[in-house]
Automatic annotation (TrEMBL):
Residues 7-64 form the HTH lysR-type domain. Belongs to the LysR transcriptional regulatory family. It comes from Marinobacterium rhizophilum. Keywords: DNA-binding, Transcription, Transcription regulation. This is LysR family transcriptional regulator. PANTHER family: HTH-TYPE TRANSCRIPTIONAL REGULATOR YBHD. SUPFAM superfamilies: Periplasmic binding protein-like II (SSF53850), Winged helix' DNA-binding domain (SSF46785). The lineage of its organism: Bacteria, Pseudomonadati, Pseudomonadota, Gammaproteobacteria, Oceanospirillales. Pfam families: HTH_1, LysR_substrate. CDD domains: PBP2_LTTR_substrate.
Amino acid sequence: MSDSRLLDTHMLHTFVIIAESPSLTDAARRLGVTQSAVSQCLKQLEDQLGTALVVRRSRPLHLTAAGNALKQNAEGILGELRRLSARVRGAADQGLVHCRLGLITSCSEVFGSKLIAQLSPFIEQMTLRSGLTPPLMQAFLEREIDILVSNDPLTGVDGLERFELFRDPMLLAVSTQNLAGLAAPVSVESLARELPMIKYGRHTHIGAYSEVVLRRMGVQANVRYETDDTHTLMNFVHDGHGWAIFSALCLAQALYLTEDVCLLELDRSRHSRTLYLLAREGEMGSIPQQVAGAIRQILQGPVFDALVQRAPWLTIEAFAGSELWSDS
């Protein structure tokens, strides 16, 4: 062999079609390419192998001894590659040895345990990583995470499959003690006028989005406390230190802290963030879609049932994204 490089599988496939065709013109037609492209591929193979593979000027086309040997072995190699692809796809569909899942903290606390229980039949081992969106996104881009659930769809990154999971409507929270001193009807404007605000930190997505909501509504709030932690925020509200904007998913995180806390609808539930599931295209078969379906199913079942006990104005339609859970 005049060239030590491994043979290209595309070139092998092209050669098998050439060997099964009466002419290069017919091979080109079957492959959907030009005759020039077929001739060039044949020449590259012959140059790489250092021997002629077809008998020139013969009609119909005939293979040399070397060409016959290549055709027989190429068919076996290509067949094995097809079987390998099928086995890999089957493994992705039937179960992974190890799936690394990244969830923003609110999703991890609300869905994590139930999600593992639902996925265990087809995923043998799962690593669950939680935290804020920026470090999780970085871990996903560096391939330390296989599937990411976050509020950023990474639209600037190619080669990803994206599932819109659900809308997460924004709510208001104020202690019943503080509420008693406010004139009815209570609104975000009256809360901002009368009480300090407890807010998520501006470097968090929900903190930044809260600022957007206030600007949209033309409300100026006196922000006295900032925190990145939902439980700390709800404790501050519970103890009467101020009011807060947070989301339904964050409420599900901290339901046990909402005794003596009044939950109010914000602007008729017009404001919400959206949660997405991201995975790399073609790497995990149907598993990303199964994970997305499991999350939606948990939300529509036990999570929603618990939320409406404390926030009865919430409807399941408030959580429906553009896909309307059609593949759940």
